[in-house]
Structures are given as structure tokens and as C-alpha cells.
Amino acid sequence: NAGVTQTPKFQVLKTGQSMTLQCAQDMNHNSMYWYRQDPGMGLRLIYYSASEGTTDKGEVPNGYNVSRLNKREFSLRLESAAPSQTSVYFCASSEADREEHGYTFGSGTRLTVV
Amino acid sequence: EDQVTQSPEALRLQEGESSSLNCSYTVSGLRGLFWYRQDPGKGPEFLFTLYSAGEEKEKERLKATLTKKESFLHITAPKPEDSATYLCAVQTPNSGYALNFGKGTSLLVTP
């Protein structure tokens, strides 16, 4: 089925460890996004990529880096994980200038940093 | 600074009891207002995009409306399967194509 695939679905890290969250979409969308969702805070934008080869900071970029590897893939890296980064991470994609179709979200990565 | 506020935070309805969810926004220009549904443990699922005041869109028991300051999601004769968190988000010229989300309304429909 077409959509956004995130891996892994669950992860537990120790403070200071690093990891990369993977995201891939097969809808030929130009734009991709990383959000985090915390209780009582809603979805907050970490980074986005309007098109292949470009990335921009969102509301909460500190502690994260991203790579738009190609049109399909957009990864999120935590270089030195902190407990404050415990969250659910969602990747999304959209076709720029066709927002009437909305964003398509992945099913999320549940990350716990201990 | 763009702000999106959803109310109420939580709503409990009896099956068949119609109601409305509110999304008020303060933005420097609106490109679009989006409604999403999110089930527990899943990613948000797109429902509607509204672009200008006076616009309305419908899907089954849901109807979304937009004014210059707020949007309403009307739920007519809800069923238990409508239970979910409903998220509102705005897109502005300053945000590119990124969405700024409200905190959501958690809806529970009981039989």
C-alpha cells in the first residue's frame, strides 16, 4: 500500500547514545517533515524538507539533524540522546501546492531515552 | 507568533448526540486550515483542508466550516467509531508548507 513507512516502531536508548530514525514515502511527494508528539504539547515540527536537497528548521530543532537522502527518504538523527527527547516521532509527506490532499503521516516511532 | 487553540480538550458524547469542536487561530496570513483525525497509537489521518472564510466541507457525519478567526468541526449523530483525537492545523506563508498544530480535542462517543 502507498504511504509513509517509518522504522523502527519502538526504540529504547540510553542517555548519550545516538540513533537515526528512518522515513520513506512512495507517493512521489516533494515535501517531507519530522514532527514530535508529546502529551499536552501537540505535534511540533522539528525539521522539514520542501524539496530534494533542501532542509529547514522547524519549531524544535535543537538536538536533531536531518538528511534528505533522495526524494523518497528523509532521516532524523539524534547525535546524543537526552531524556527530554523521549517522545513519539512522526514523519509526513505532502505534494507541495496540492494541500487539498493533506499530509500523509507514518505510524510513528516511539522513542524512550533512559 | 502563530497560535492555534482547540477546545474543548476532551468531549464525551452519547451516540447520536451532535456537537461541535472548535479551533481558533491567530496567524499572520492563512494559506490553509487542516483537520486530522488521530486514533490511539497511529499517525494522524487527513480529513479536510479549508482555504477561505465561508468555506465548508463534509465527509460522512463530519462537517468543517471556516471563519476569519476560527474553524468548527461539526459531528452529526456520532457513532462510537468516531471516537478519536481531532487535530486542527494551520499553514501560513511564513511556514512554507509546514503545518502548525493545535493540541487536539479527544472525543469519546459512548453507546
Order of helices and strands of chain A: EEEEEEEEEEE
* Helix amount of chain A: under 10%
Largest sheet of chain B: 6 strands, mixed
Order of helices and strands of chain B: EEEEEEEEEEE
Radius of gyration of chain B: 13 Å
Shape of chain B: globular
Structural class of chain A comes to: mainly beta
Instruction: Find the biggest chain interface.
Output: A-B, 29 and 24 residues
Write structural notes for this entry.
The complex is a heterodimer of chains A (114) and B (111). With 114 residues, chain A is mainly β. In chain A, 0% of the residues lie in helices and 51% in strands. Chain B contains no helices and 11 strands. The mean pLDDT of chain B is 94. Chains A and B meet through strand 4, strand 5, strand 9 and strand 10 of A and strand 4, strand 5, strand 9 and strand 10 of B.
Write the SSE topology.
The complex is a heterodimer of chains A (114) and B (111).
Chain A: E1 4-7, E2 10-13, E3 19-25, E4 31-38, E5 42-49, E6 56-57, E7 64-68, E8 74-78, E9 87-94, E10 104-105, E11 109-113
Parallel strand pairs in A: 2-11
Antiparallel strand pairs in A: 1-3, 3-8, 4-5, 4-9, 5-6, 7-8, 9-10, 9-11
Chain B: E1 3-7, E2 10-14, E3 19-26, E4 32-38, E5 45-50, E6 56-59, E7 62-66, E8 70-75, E9 84-91, E10 100-101, E11 105-110
Parallel strand pairs in B: 2-11
Antiparallel strand pairs in B: 1-3, 3-8, 4-5, 4-9, 6-7, 7-8, 9-10, 9-11
Output the keywords.
A: 114 residues, mainly beta, 7-stranded mixed sheet, globular, B: 111 residues, 6-stranded mixed sheet, 56% strand
Quickly describe the structure.
With 114 residues, chain A is mostly beta strands. Chain A has strands at residues 4-7, 10-13, 19-25, 31-38, 42-49, 56-57, 64-68, 74-78, 87-94, 104-105, 109-113.
